[in-house]
Amino acid sequence: MDLDFSKIDGLLPAVVQDQATGEVLMVAFMNQEAWEKTLETGEAHYWSRSRDVLWHKGSTSGHVQKVREVWVDCDADTVLLKVEQVGRAACHTGHVSCFHRRLDEKGEPVTVGRPVFDPKKVYGK
Amino acid sequence: MDLDFSKIDGLLPAVVQDQATGEVLMVAFMNQEAWEKTLETGEAHYWSRSRDVLWHKGSTSGHVQKVREVWVDCDADTVLLKVEQVGRAACHTGHVSCFHRRLDEKGEPVTVGRPVFDPKKVYGK
Fold first, then answer.
1. A59-107 per-position pLDDT tens digit
2. What predicted TM-score, i.e. pTM, was given to this entire model?
3. Taking the CA atoms of chain A, what radius of gyration do you get in angstroms?
4. Which of A1, A4, A94, B87 has the most crowded CB, counting CB atoms within 10 A?
């Protein structure tokens, strides 16, 4: 189906949810090419806004996202991927979810949980 | 805490998840004002990209989103709200979630579930 990539300079947000647990793992951005590669390969591809390149998530770490379900919103300008996250953690910090900081009652971020891998070992940095 | 609104012309995406069920309800965008209003009031505020106005979700329909948890991602450029959705449905179509279309094996959208309210009655259109 056709998506609306016009609202953010050729990009749209993709929400990534763990299919088994329902945990929201991350949000990334797709252009048309990333969208097509994701559907073709069954593995999540995004457009990296920081590096300006097509990004096959997990190509460095091995922690690819196997796409089990694809959902499209009412305006066709956002997608929801339900995935199997290889290596369990989606975040480059080693946390399961990029959303691992919760605001406390004062509005200050508190890190919840611990990394499940050591980024230095996975990324060799 | 300070968020990074610089990547999308002063906006950042907010993922909205039903706190009770874990269902992803919608994605909307916030500017600094919407973010502050959300924290101040405990009800979700966004920036409407189509109408170019601050948008207190539910101000027309009564279906506000009571924010129970606020999470921030690793780059501080995306937030996750866990909410109690008054009226149960977040989508203007009357569906619980804006993500009510799933792609089938041919990549075609299939609507899953039925609206829980009649938009004509709620919005008077």
1. 988 999 999 999 999 999 999 999 999 999 999 999 999 999 999 999 9
2. 0.95
3. 15
4. A94
Interchain pair A78, B93: CB under 8 A: no
Pairing of strands B12-18, B79-85: parallel
Residues from chain A contacting residue B109 (CB–CB below 8 Å) = 1, 72
With a pLDDT cut of 90, the percent of chain A lying above it is 89
Contact residues, A window 41-60, toward B, CB-based 8 Å cutoff:
49
Chain B partners within 8 Å of A100 (Cβ): 71, 74
Contacts of A78 in chain B (CB under 8 A): 27, 98-99
Pairing of strands A12-18, A79-85: parallel
The answer to whether ipTM exceeds 0.85 is yes
Probe site for chain A from B32, B47, B69, B74 (most A CB atoms < 10 A): B74
- B121 at interface of A, judged by CB pairs closer than 8 A: no
Euclidean distance between CA atoms A113 and A96, whole angstroms: 9
Q: Supply the DSSP string of chain B, one letter for each residue.
A: -----TTBTTBEEEEEEETTT--EEEEEEE-HHHHHHHHHHSB-EEEETTTTEEEETTTTTS--EEEEEEEE-TTSS-EEEEEEETTS--STTS-S-S--EEE-TTS-EEE-S--SS-HHHHH--
What torsion do the CA atoms of A3, A6, A11, A14 make, to the nearest 10 degrees? -40
The length of chain A is 125
Cβ atoms A35, A10 nearer than 8 A: no
Q: Tokens 């999540």 appear where? A: A44
